[in-house]
DNA sequence: TAGTGTTTTTGATAAATGTCAAAGGAAAAG
DNA sequence: CTTTTCCTTTGACATTTATCAAAAACACTA
């Protein structure tokens, strides 16, 4: 088997939507690093600037920040998806977002600066970037309209329906801030179903 | 003055961030259509699928949908920015988002299918697409964290600070749903400042 | 200017959610 | 098995926001 054909789930995730040429593929692989991390590992610490895009091959990450002393989960990220601290990566200004792993995980890291070089050189990689960002944007639209005019209960049921496994894998305290409510309220919602 | 150098504010908006070659520029112009519309004009009606990306040279648009009989403003869009019904354009599935103009406006329309052809042929146009979407995503992050854990009053003050002119141009009823609150609550917030 | 329709404000009340404190339960560690 | 720690639930109460109804302010037209 040729080296370039080695199975990497990253490309399985991408390829249905964006064709990546063999050359681009190896260029990408040359800047990607695969690591195994334990539960609790911090990918982006407080005060740090997120300079990588992460692809989660296995495991689960959480992006969060502290607001008025409260820990607020902005995003969960599971197998076969991408995560980074978007505002920081783009603007290069430190936001206060941190990323930590909630499970032992297999993570592919791509330095943002390397990725930008690849964007210059490979049209299809630029397209991949556009695709990933666009997907994320559609997803954000969904979340926004959830938060804008749905009750806490509706939001919970929504999550339960769309992402039932998340509730098995993550403690309720973290889920509640993701839904924009307190832990107590979430507990009460669950009890009255 | 060469035709290709004719002033189009669209390119002024883009060029600080993405270099567009003369060839790409005219390719873009060839699929862009400039129109003047009156206040109240509907760019994307109920039930329609948004098949264009719109650039607002002058004026103001509003993206909204009806939920439980209530009119909810998802987004305002002012001069020198882009709008489209993202979920519909991408997935080609009708969402129930409509786009209407709140002022007499000058709008450049780009058919989404044409744009995708240009993405294929011109790397820099694809980059422009990535840039626009990325910008929008950063902006959405901001809105999301606003809605997730800020009070109605904080959200209003935030808007007042970041977008004071919007409050001059748009009626409070439309602003309130954008902030995720009722009109009455918004009125009370304003009165107690 | 008077009249009509729209937007904004105000009032009374109800519903949803937050806060603080404490009690149960479950899981991990010894 | 017991202890310790962390996670979840429950209770009492405060606060925020929604709802429904009506009044007031404003803008446009005849």
Short description:
Chains A, B: Residues 16-59 form the Cyclic nucleotide-binding domain. Chains A, B: Pfam families: cNMP_binding. The structure is a homodimer of 193-residue chains. A 4-stranded antiparallel beta sheet of chain A has the order 1-8-3-6. In chain A, strands 2-7-4-5 form a 4-stranded antiparallel beta sheet.
Structural account:
The structure is a homodimer. A four-stranded antiparallel sheet of chain A has the order 1-8-3-6. Chain A has a four-stranded antiparallel sheet with strand order 2-7-4-5. In chain A, α4 crosses α5 and α8 crosses α9. The longest helix of chain A is centred in the last third of the chain and has 27 residues. With about 190 residues, chain A is of the alpha+beta class. Helix content of chain A is about 50%, strand content about 25%. The first copy, chain A, is globular, with a radius of gyration of 18 Å. Chain A is built from nine helices and eight strands. The first copy, chain A, has a domain of about 120 residues: Sandwich (Jelly Rolls), CATH 2.60.120. Chain A binds a DNA duplex (30 and 30 nucleotides) through α9. Chains A, B: This is Cyclic nucleotide-binding domain-containing protein. Chains A, B: Pfam families: cNMP_binding. Chains A, B: It comes from Flavobacterium beibuense F44-8.
